[in-house]
Amino acid sequence: MRNYEIMFIVSPNAADEDIDKINGQIEGVITAGGGKAEKIEKLGKRRLAYIVKKFREGSYILFTVQADGAIVREVERRLRVMDLVIKYLTVRMDDDLKRLDKIKAHRQKRAARRGRAHAEGGERRGPSPAEQMPEE
Asked: Of 25, 62, 71, 108, which one has the fewest beta carbons inside 10 Å?
């Protein structure tokens, strides 16, 4: 199971009951497939950055989900065919966490090397940039 964020925008003309119905359907698909909807946030109506399907604003909904790829594909398929949904986006959050951990580990190694070089009297490894330049 991986962590995903699924955000979709619903038509501003949709009633709250319609939005709750869509949220219920999406949550049902996730739980039926063995996933878990950790958080469902209604972010309210907001102005869109650009016109989408002749709408200037829409109601934003954010799902934080723990699921596998098949469940996410089914959710995306359902969102694609719903008339009230004008846009959606799915982001896998595991990659971001892995990337952050990798960057932190790299920085720690680099800091350790700097500390070790400092302790050894500031010896450098490799030629200086001036030594690397070819003679003319």
From this structure: 108
Give the mean pLDDT per block of 10 residues along the chain (136 residues): 92 93 93 92 92 93 92 94 94 77 84 74 60 61
Q: Say how far apart CA 59 and CA 39 lie, in whole Å.
A: 17
The count of structural domains within the chain is: 1
- Is 120 domain-assigned? no
For the chain, how far is it from start to end, CA to CA, in angstroms?
60
Q: How far is CA 67 from CA 28, 64, 81, 129, in A?
A: 13, 10, 21, 50
Tokens 């490894």, located at residue: 125
Residue 100 lies in a domain: no
Distance CA(63)–CA(40), nearest Å, equals 5
Neighbours of 77 (CB within 10 A): 10
Per the DSSP assignment, residues forming a β-bridge with 64 are 5, 39
Look at residue 1 in the predicted model and tell me its pLDDT. 85
For 18-132, list the strands marked E by DSSP: 36-52, 55-67, 85-92
Say which residue the tokens 């962590």 belong to. Answer: 3
Q: Domain span at residue 27? A: 2-94
